[in-house]
Design brief:
- This protein has eight helices and four strands, in the order βαβαββαααααα.
- With about 200 residues, the protein is α+β, with helices and mostly antiparallel strands.
- The protein folds into two domains: about 70 residues, Glutaredoxin (3-Layer(aba) Sandwich); about 110 residues, Glutathione S-transferase Yfyf (Class Pi), Chain A, domain 2, CATH 1.20.1050.
- A four-stranded mixed sheet has the order 2-1-3-4, covered by helices on one side.
- α1 runs parallel beside α3 and α4 runs antiparallel to α5.
- It is globular and about 45 Å long.
- The two termini are about 30 Å apart.
- Its EC number is 2.5.1.18.
- InterPro entries: Glutathione-S-Trfase_C-like, Glutathione-S-Trfase_C_sf, Glutathione_S-Trfase, Glutathione_S-Trfase_N, Thioredoxin-like_sf.
Length: about 200
């Protein structure tokens, strides 16, 4: 059985666990990270020199970066709906996954870490962060209006997995949100997917 190192309070761990649920795949998860075993320990650093969760262990193979882990699991299970094999369809899914990991995550970092995690930040920085977060979520809104269903079209893909967790964080954050009806309708569609209640709609930030 594959093993996942990381605490469930981590959004990046939950995206991997949700992917596994969609694939009907059991992962042996161990708690590592904030409040648990430190990823600064030598045995963890040997697996991931970034000292960040999650890390997937599959036999002698170790993999870090949550979106890469999600891709690996889908490929292992030949889940061509979650991760298409056709070049352009796959590139589109990976484009939105990369956007989530880079642009969208960077947009919410200051506001979320200040308002939810309690890290220091000026009111001006928080206000700018909220505005950036809402603006980026507006890009997702525009894409969902275009597709009318899921991020990349008519099927649920890994793009929906990683962005679904990010959107749920935005929805639950103590901020002034813009109205995004397509995002709200999409989250309702995602709520019927296996694992959503456990890893997305569970109230965790």
């Amino acid at each position: 059985m594959m093993k996942l190192l990381g605490r469930l309070t981590s959004l990046n761990v939950r995206k991997v666990m949700w992917t596994a649920a969609l694939l009907d795949l059991d992962l042996d998860r161990e708690d590592w990270g904030m409040g648990f075993r430190s990823p600064q320990q030598p045995e963890f650093l040997a697996l991931n020199p970034n000292a960040l969760v999650p890390v997937l262990i599959d036999g002698d193979f170790a993999l870090w970066e949550s979106n890469s882990i999600c891709r690996y699991l889908a490929t292992q299970r030949y889940a061509t709906t979650l991760l298409p094999t056709e070049a352009q369809a796959r590139a589109t899914v990976e484009q939105w996954m990369d956007w989530q990991a880079g642009e969208l995550n960077n947009s919410w970092r200051v506001a979320f870490m200040a308002l939810v995690r309690g890290q220091p930040a000026t009111p001006e920085a928080i206000e700018a962060g909220v505005a950036s977060w809402n603006r980026h979520m507006g890009m997702l809104e525009a894409q969902l209006r275009k597709t009318g269903a899921y991020v990349c079209g008519g099927d649920l893909t890994l793009a929906d997995v990683v962005l679904g967790l990010s959107a749920q964080r935005w929805k639950n954050a103590p901020i002034a949100r813009v109205e995004l009806p397509a995002v709200e309708a999409w989250l309702e569609r995602l709520a019927g997917a296996p694992g959503f209640a456990d890893y997305v709609g569970n109230g965790m930030p």
